[in-house]
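Thread: sanity check for a docking pose with zinc ion

Original post by kr_44:
Hi all, I'm comparing my docking run against an independent structure prediction. Below are the sequence and the ligand SMILES. Could someone generate the full complex and paste the structure tokens? I mainly care about where the ligand ends up relative to the chain.
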Amino acid sequence: MKEECPLCGAESELHFVPYKIPFFGEIMITTAVCSSCGYHTTDVMVLTEKKRTRSEMVISSTDDLNAIVIRSPFGTIEIPELYVSVEPKRGDAFISTVEGVLNRVEGVVKMLARDVEGTAKKRAETVLEQIARIKAGKASMTLIIDDPTGNSAVIPNKLFFSKDSFTKGI
Ligand SMILES: [Zn+2]
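Reply from moderator J.T.:
Ran it for you. Here is the predicted complex with zinc ion included:
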């Protein structure tokens, strides 16, 4: 399917990838890639009607870091142990792993740590140390995704990639 690129106006290619995830329902992942300017955007939509969801998972081993995080443009990600809250942003849906989310957070905190002084710098450094310990499986954290549209979730890797999940290949 073709759609007009919001950046340059050229015709861009749209891909629809349906998944069926046990206990979660059917979701549709839409990716639009513009071949002229490189712009790309991802959207996640749950096909089954959903109410507000609050999905959470305790991450306490390196294996848990591979859990799949699905975030719709309306999902807020919270990691209370790291004082982190990632607010939703229009058009910023993604599918990643817990480790991928941690890497994003680490990048932002590293940038902040460069620009601040004193106690704020200390706190940023403490958070970075905590992230390193979580990545090494030596500390735990809770990943919470709250979504008023019910289109976000954190799902254990084994469940996401179980045989029945794919109704169609990518
Ligand atoms: Zn374009």
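The CA atoms of residues 36 and 158 lie 37 Å apart. Hope that helps with the comparison, let us know if your pose agrees.
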